[in-house]
Design brief:
Layout lengths: L2 E5 L6 H10 L4 E4 L10 H4 L9 E4 L2 E4 L1 H13 L11 H29 L7 H24 L10 H16 L7 H11 L9
Parallel strand pairs: 1-2
Antiparallel strand pairs: 1-3, 3-4
Length: about 200
């Protein structure tokens, strides 16, 4: 199987590179210079019509959207490596739920914070930023409750769910999400980010 990751360092493609490293999946990496606009070139748009990274090409067939790629990697490689639960198990349902929660439910509020604090000057708003932080605080409380009961997202053992959820939570911390209020989340995130596979930055 030929796998090619189209990516850019320090972007939403970085967690995919980390997941490939965590899973030990051989692959080729192609840098797309998003600062130079290479993501808008016709050849790249033929792979990913969104004109963003990441894109993963599997035997020449492309897929895009980071969450979709994460879930495919988990199903295709994670089960046999003990890093993703088997289909039909309660853990599998939780893996799908929390992975989607991080990108969709938490991610939607995170985008509000990003726009309010780092968007164009005309749309920045301290009021909207405070509201977004309050929303993230409520969601982090849900995650904190789960991690108070068990060391990892699915129970006793680390899984790819940590990387998926942890990547989103880690980015939110960078933007100012109130992690300081949630000790279990903070400690869990430190353990996730300390893994060797998470040290990719170039």
């Amino acid at each position: 199987m030929s796998i090619v990751l189209y990516w850019h360092p320090m972007s939403s493609a970085t967690p995919i590179a980390c997941a490939l490293a965590e899973l030990g999946v051989p692959h080729e990496r192609v840098k797309v210079d998003i600062k130079a606009g290479e993501q808008r070139h016709p050849d790249y748009l033929a792979l990913n019509p969104n004109g963003k990274v990441p894109t993963l090409a599997v035997d020449g067939a492309p897929m895009f959207e980071a969450l979709a790629i994460h879930l495919w990697l988990g199903e295709r490689f994670g089960v046999e490596r003990g890093l993703w639960p088997k289909a039909g198990t309660p853990e599998h349902l939780q893996a799908l739920s929390w992975s989607t929660w991080s990108y969709v439910t938490y991610g939607a509020v995170l985008v509000r914070l990003q726009v309010a604090t780092h968007g164009e000057e005309a749309v920045r708003s301290s009021t909207q930023a405070d509201a977004a932080r309050a929303g993230l605080d409520e969601l982090l409380a849900l995650l904190d409750t789960r991690l108070a009961a068990q060391p990892w997202m699915l129970g006793r053992d680390y899984s790819l769910v940590e990387l998926i959820v942890g990547s989103v939570i880690g980015y939110s911390a960078y933007l100012g999400a109130p992690l300081a209020n949630h000790a279990h989340v903070r400690d869990w995130l430190a353990r996730v980010q300390a893994r060797p596979a998470m040290q990719i930055d170039a």
